[in-house]
Amino acid sequence: AEKMRLEQLQRQSRKLQERGWQPRWFRKEKGKDAYEYTGGYWEAREQGKWEGFSDIFGQTISENSID
After folding, report:
1. In the 8-state DSSP scheme, what is residue 35?
2. What H or E segment, with its residue span, contains residue 37?
3. pTM for the predicted model, two decimal places
4. What is the Cα 13 distance to its own chain's centre?
5. Structural contact between residues 26 and 34, judged by C-beta atoms closer than 8 angstroms
6. Residue 36 main-chain phi, psi, to 5 deg
């Protein structure tokens, strides 16, 4: 059961990435294979505001799971 749950979370994550997922705190530098930090992470961390983030630890599957 646990293996199936984790595999489902992995499939959901892949589908999000295929739909054009963008990093929240970085942007790709034009003409380079590098990303630039755009800010906001430390502020979110300090305030404990993690709404809208994927559950990377696989503790829950959202009600709006990706089909």
Report:
1. E
2. strand 35-37
3. 0.52
4. 8
5. no
6. -115, 135
